[in-house]
Design brief:
It contains three helices and five strands, in the order αααβββββ. It is of the alpha+beta class. The chain has a five-stranded mixed β-barrel with strand order 1-2-3-5-4.
Length: 143
């Protein structure tokens, strides 16, 4: 069996393993194996093939992988709209029960219901917004 075929098989095995791990490390090693397969196909001897594999895998792991990981781990996008209200503190304007009530969230007045339907939250209490259903905030009192 030709040497380049062995390198291609190694590259395929590393590529399949990368699919299951998603670390980008095995993918870089697979690319290095493909580059080495090309070197073997043009007739380089085995010691030079190993040198090509070592250099290209080192370059991939220490140069390309950190760039790829930085690109993948982008900061969480900011929430907006009603999603931005989840977890925010609010103040009870009108007594909140399991059926109705009014709260003030960041200067806006919202209809509200108690997240736990058995609770009665008095006027002036501070609550946390747990969920938004349509135009109604489901709230739970702060302790």
């Amino acid at each position: 069996m030709d040497e380049w075929v062995i390198w291609v098989i190694l590259a395929l095995v590393l590529g399949v393993a990368e699919i299951f791990t998603l670390t980008a490390s095995l993918g870089m090693l697979g690319v290095a194996a493909l580059l080495t397969a090309a070197a073997a196909a043009i007739g380089l001897p085995v010691p030079l093939q190993l040198l090509v594999f070592a250099l290209s895998s080192t370059a991939g792991l220490f140069v390309v992988r950190p760039l790829a990981v930085r690109h993948i781990r982008q900061p969480q996008l900011r929430r907006f709209g009603v999603e931005a209200l989840l977890g925010k503190p609010a103040y009870v304007v009108s007594e909140v029960t399991g059926r109705d009530g009014r709260i003030r969230i960041g200067g806006e007045e919202w209809s509200a219901r108690a997240y736990d339907e058995t609770l009665v939250i008095p006027t002036g209490a501070t609550v946390d917004v747990i969920e938004i259903e349509g135009a109604t905030a489901l709230v739970y009192p702060r302790e």
